[in-house]
Hints:
The complex is a heterodimer of chains A (624) and B (181).
Chain A: H1 2-6, E1 21-26, E2 30-37, E3 40-43, E4 53-54, E5 56-59, E6 64-66, H2 68-71, E7 81-83, H3 93-98, E8 107-108, E9 116-119, E10 122-124, H4 126-145, E11 151-156, H5 162-174, E12 179-184, H6 185-197, E13 201-208, E14 213-221, E15 224-233, H7 238-253, H8 261-277, E16 283-289, E17 295-301, H9 302-327, E18 336-340, H10 347-357, H11 370-382, E19 392-394, E20 401-405, E21 409-414, E22 422-428, E23 438-444, E24 454-461, E25 474-480, E26 486-492, E27 498-502, H12 511-525, H13 529-559, H14 562-578, H15 584-597, H16 599-623
Parallel strand pairs in A: 1-11, 11-12, 13-18, 15-19
Antiparallel strand pairs in A: 1-2, 2-3, 2-4, 5-6, 5-7, 8-9, 9-10, 13-14, 14-15, 16-17, 20-21, 20-23, 22-25, 23-24, 25-26, 26-27
Chain B: H1 8-11, H2 22-36, H3 46-67, H4 69-79, H5 94-109, H6 116-144, H7 147-180
Helix pairs in contact in B: 2-3, 3-4, 4-7, 5-7, 6-7
Amino acid sequence: MALLQLSEPGQSLAPHQHKLAVGIDLGTTNSLVATVRSGQAETLPDEQGHHLLPSVVRYLDEQIEVGYEAILAATTDPLNTIASVKRLMGRSIEDIKILGNRLPYEFQQQETAVPRIHTAGGDVSPIEVSAEILKVLAKRAEASLGGELNGVVITVPAYFDDAQRQATKDAAQLAGLNVLRLLNEPTAAAVAYGLDRGQDGLHAIYDLGGGTFDISILRLNQGVFEVLSTGGDSALGGDDFDRIVAGWIMQQAGIKDDAGHAMLRRLMRDACAAKEALTDAAVAQLNIELEDGNHWQGELDRATFNQLVEPLIRKTLAPCRRALRDAGLTADEIEDVVLVGGSTRVPYVREMVGNFFGTPPLVDIDPDKVVALGAAIQADILIGNKPEDEMLLLDVNPLSLGIETMGGLVEKIIPRNTTIPVARAQEFTTFKDGQTAMAIHVLQGERELVADCRSLARFELREIPPMVAGAAHILVTFEVDADGLLHVTAKEQSSGVETRVEVKPSYGLTDSEIEGMLRASMAHAQEDMDTRRLREQQVEAKRVIEALASALAADGEQLLTKEEREPIKKSFQHLVTLSESDDHEAIKEAIEALEKSCEFYVERRMNANIHKAMAGQKVENFND
Amino acid sequence: MLDFSKNYFELFGLPVGFEVDSNRLADRYRELQRAIHPDRYANATGQEKRLSMQGSIRLNDALNTLKKPLLRAQYLLELKGVNLETKGASITDGGFLMEQMELREELAGIKQQADPYDAVASLMNRIKSNIQGLLREISEQFETDTPQALKQSQETVSKLQFLYKLSTQVEELEEELDEAL
Lengths: 624, 181
C-alpha cells in the first residue's frame, strides 16, 4: 500500500484518527463550548460544573479574570469589567454612540478605527476581550477532552455584517484557534434540532439573544440545510429588555439620569433579575440600593413588564415578515418555529412569536445550549470525524453588498440572501479623460444612499493606463466565502492592472496590530514570535501530511500512475523529514513544494468526486 | 474541479431548454454540493480549499440562473448566440405598455389606500398573473425555436424585466409599510 511506503517507520498516519473539534457559542451574555462524544453532542462544564461562562472579562493590573469571577466585580469595578463585548465587535466609536448604549467604559480612540477600552490592565480592543473568553473555553475543552484542539467552529449571529464577522475571526486567531468555520447561530440551532428530529420541511429559527436578534427561514431536505433567507437586528436583545426595565425603575424610584457607573450597573443587574423572575412569577419584588445607601422597594408585575417590552418584541416581527417575503413564503407555510437564545424564555416573546407564525414554538432543547450543540456537530463533521455523513449546510449572506457610484448612490453587486459561497462581478469605467486611478468604496446594507449603508472599506485601483473617458473596463469582483467574509478585487481589463483587498481595515485590526498583540501576549507566556510561527508551520505540515496520506491511501493507486506518484512521494518525504525541524521557513517551503507537486492530483480527486456524485444521479434515472 | 467548459444545463445533467424539472435540478444541485462544498474541505490543503470554493461558487451561479425564469431565458438566449446586452429588445406591444402605466399608477397610489396591505396583495396578484402568462409565451417561443420565435422571445424577455422590476418595487413598498408599523 502506498501509504506504508510513504510514511516513516513508527509514524502514525491513520487516516481516520479521531480529532478534537469543538463548537463555541460566543454569546453577548454567556458563552459555551460543546463537543461530540460517542456520537452525542454535549456542552462541556468547568471544574465547578458550570456549563455557561458569563461573557465578562475583568482586567486587573497583572491578571485577567473571565466569567463568574469577573461578574462578581461588575458592580464594584465597572470600568475594568467588560460585559456584552459582543455588541462592540466590528464597531467604531461612532457606531457605538449611535447604538445609544449607556456604556460604562472609558473609550480610547487611537489611530485605527477599532475602539479601545481603557482598563487597569491597559487599553484593550473588543477583539482582545473576546479572545480572552475564547481562550478560557478552549482551555476548558482541552482539559476535558485531554488534548490539543484541532479545530473549532465559532458561531455568529446570522445578521452580523462583514466587519463583525472579521472581528470574531480575528479574536479566534488571537486566541490561537484553528477556525474551521464561522457558523450562523440560527443555522447551528437548526442542526441541533434537525438531526434530532430528522424532519424535512420549512422551518423558522427565531433567535433572540442577549444583544442580537436573528430570524432564519430554512428548508431541510435529506440532510441538507438550505437557508432561504435571514434577517434580524444585530443590536437588539435581552440587554435592551433590561435597559427598558432599568429605565422604568429609575422613573419609579426617582433615580436621576446622571447616576454613577456603579449605580447603573446595579440597576441593570436588578432589572435583569426582575425580568428573569417574571418568567415564572406574576410579580417581581424590587429592592434597589440607592447611591446614598438607602433602599427603594417596589414591584413589577407581568402585565406592566409585557407592556414595557412589547415595542421591542414588535421590532423583531418586521425582520420576520421580510425574511418570509424574501423566501417567497407566508407565515402559514412554516411548519415549525424554533426558539433560541435566553431572551425567548420571556413568556410574552413566546406568545407573540407563536401568534405571528400561527404555531406553538418549539422549545424542547435548552435555548441557551442549542447553538453550541449545533456548532459542535458541524465541527465534528468539518474536522473529518464523520467522512460518511451526508449533512451539508448552505447558508446565505445577510446583507446586500455593493459599491459607491456617482451621486452618492450604492450599486448592489451581491443582493442579500444569496447562497454562499458566491462571486459576482460588475464592470465600471472611468468618467474623466486620462483618469489613472479609481477609488472603490465597498458598502453593505439595503439602502440606496451611501450615507445610509455601512462602509466596509475604501481602496484605490491605480496605474490605469490613460484613456478617454469611458474607455477603461474595470471589473470589480466581490467574493463571499463560506464564512460569509467578503474579498474584493478590481482589475482593469485591457492592461491587467489588479488590486486585491481583504475587506477588513475599516473596523478590523490590521495584520500588524494582530502581530503586535500576539507579541504582547507572548511576552507573558515567555514565548516569542518565531516559536509561534514554527508551531503554526508544524501544525500545518502535519495537516497537509495527514490529508495527503489519507487521500493517497484512498485513491492514489487508481488516480495516479507509478511515474506520477514518484515526484509526489519525493516531496512528501521531504516534508515529513523537515516537519520535525525547527526551521519554519523551510517547512513552509516544503509545504508549498508538496502542494505544487500534487496540484494535478488534487484536481483529479475533485473531478472523481464530482463524477461519483453525477454517476449516483444517473443510476437513479434508470430507476425512475 | 468542476468542468468549467460545461454549460449550466450540462453541469446538472439536464436537457437544454426553457422547461426545467425543478425537483431534479434541486436534487442534482444538492448531490454536487455534497461533493464539492468548502465544508467538505474545511480541513484540507489551501489548494483544495480554493478549488472547492470555485466549484461551489459555480454551482450556486448555475442554480441561481436555472432556477429563476428570467435569468434562465436570458441564459438560453446567450447560449443561442444572442447578445442581449447590446440589443436589448424594444417593446412594440402597445397594449403591454399601456398596462405597465396602469400598474405603475396603481403602485404610486397604494399608500393612500384605506388598506394598503390589501392593495399590495391585489397588485402583486396582477403582476404575478401577467408574469405567468409571459412565461407560458416564452416557453412556447423556445419550443418553436425558429429565428422568428427567438426574436419574439427577446421581446418577451424585455417584458418580463419590466414586470420583475415592478414586483421588486412592490416588495420594497411593502417593506416600507412594515417599517412604519
